């Protein structure tokens, strides 16, 4: 058996592991990243790439807004293939009850410095003419953006590599803890700090991490330039994203730079297989057409699924794992890991290095959720 030693070893080269690698390397640490597959091949390859500020809780707002601002700051450095576009989100309201939610949301964002404008029925129709008639209005959140997640992960990994980080792909980690990482080829890696950034697979390596897989479907169409201008999300999406029991679908469509339209989204617990579920897919597309009838005749070029890493309280697990001084978690980002990857890395590395954090880490600490500690 051979060994190698680093300051930090990160398991998982999805967007979260990539962001952590870049952040640790930028602070001068000797970093290794290991992935059983390729860079950004897990949920990162499946995700929509919507960089969105959310308001479920103050903690969720703080992480999403901070991270969105970090993406904005990174924008001049992002290569073309990351396809970063600040296209904005419109939260679409169907009736007066949802318009009341639009007003509440606008108030929440305005009080916290996030530009957000209420659109009435006619303004909504003017900015998105392919929405159906008769919708009540919406909320335009201008600073929300869109990017292509696998290329963003690759960009962050390459930046880490330029700063000296080493990358090992195609070899799985079978065990991690107490500063040691065992690989499937029997190689052992030693790290003063080891980070589990394996997304929905995290509980396999860290027993007791309360994460469940939450399956999602997406469809991408052929090119229809100009059909859609903003990311459009139904306000009912909030109900669907929050439901903890039943399967759900919601209208959530995204304009890609290529003129393609990415159509989401679905949520399912207990579905372990990657196969496309025709029932969920049909429900999702029906929902999309209820809002945008013009989607019906379009041709789809690809359909796929992915697994979000869901925690019981809908906040990620970022920080030390109780009972093991070397082990840190950066996982459990559910449907927001592309958005929150950069802030996750900052919060984690600030905590470890003792730097003054921009936002407090406490709401995300894994100690709040640890069911049983591997070393208790
Ligand atoms: C349908 C869908 C739509 C989404 N839309 C959005 C969106 O619009 N905006 C947003 O912000 N988020 C979105 N998300 C969520 C986002 O994609 C995830 O939160 C994010 O990609 C998680 O990144 P990660 O690095 O934690 O995990 P992953 O990308 O899953 O990376 C984990 C990595 O760990 C590796 N790994 C696992 N086990 C091992 C092991 N034992 N040894 C070595 N390597 C291992 C895997 O190979 C993988 O590369 C969406 C997710 C889905 C499924």
Describe this structure in words.
With 376 residues, this protein is an alpha/beta fold. Helix content is 30%, strand content 29%. The protein contains ten helices and 18 strands. Strands 1, 2, 8, 9, 10, 11, 17 and 18 form an eight-stranded mixed beta sheet that branches. An eight-stranded mixed beta sheet has the order 5-6-4-13-14-15-12-16. A two-stranded antiparallel sheet has the order 3-7. A hairpin with a 4-residue loop joins strand 14 (248-255) and strand 15 (260-269). It is globular, with a radius of gyration of 20 Å. Residues 371-376 have low confidence and may be disordered. Bound molecules: flavin-adenine dinucleotide. Flavin-adenine dinucleotide is lined by residues 11-17, 34-37, 41-44, 46-50, 172-173, 197-201, 205, 216, 218, 264-265, 306-308, 331, 333, 335-339.
Task: Jot down its keywords.
376 residues, binds flavin-adenine dinucleotide, 29% strand, 30% helix, eight-stranded mixed sheet, alpha/beta
Total beta-strand segments: 18
H-E string: EHEHEHEHEHEEHEEEEHEEHEEHEEEH
Strand content: 25-35%
Largest sheet: 8 strands, mixed
As residue ranges, the low-confidence spans are: 371-376
Oligomer: single chain
**Cα distance spanning the termini:** 29 Å
Q: Mean pLDDT, rounded to whole units?
A: 95
Helix content: 25-40%
- Secondary structure class reads alpha/beta
In this entry the ligands are: flavin-adenine dinucleotide
Shape, per Cα inertia axes: globular
Radius of gyration: 20 Å
Specify the number of helices. Answer: 10
